[in-house]
Amino acid sequence: MLKEKALELLNEAFEERPDLYLIDFKMGASNDMKVIIDGDNGVTLADCVFVSRAVEHNLDRDEVDFSIEVTSAGATTPLELPRQYKKNIGRTLEITDREKRSETGELISVQENGVTIKWKARVPKTVGKGKMTVEKEWSPSFEEIKKAKVVIKFN
């Protein structure tokens, strides 16, 4: 009952703020709710407070004891929804598909059913000795992607 009511309240909050969306919702045995959200323009502390209050202020603690924690998807959290890829265009992603192929490259586009990344690779020359640098692309579909995460670079 509490879980259903909390999810209903979360949906209402996301209708009010369509730039935010739910990534994960977990409820522990002692009514501990953990909500992970993301947003088209990132997530601020105010966004987390907004979502938390949308649930907290509409449930009666006298009826049932609960706690709620609202957090944003972290920088190293794998991307879960197609919607999350759009805000990461231009960033480096590491993508692994269901066949265990893994590539790291710049996310250059997001289509309705998948993404395209590109990267530079050193390959043997077709004639003669040595290697040459070529640009490669890969366009896995969302169904093929097992795991995708943003690669954080420190310069």
UniProtKB/TrEMBL annotation:
Location within or outside the cell: Cytoplasm
Record field: transmembrane: none
Cellular component GO terms, alphabetical: cytoplasm
Span of domain Ribosome maturation factor RimP N-terminal: 26-75
Gene Ontology biological-process annotations: ribosomal small subunit biogenesis
Pfam family, one: RimP_N
SUPFAM superfamilies the record matches: YhbC-like, N-terminal domain (SSF75420)
Main location: cytoplasm
Function of the protein: Required for maturation of 30S ribosomal subunits.
Stated family: Belongs to the RimP family.
Record protein name field: Ribosome maturation factor RimP
Organism name: Nonlabens tegetincola
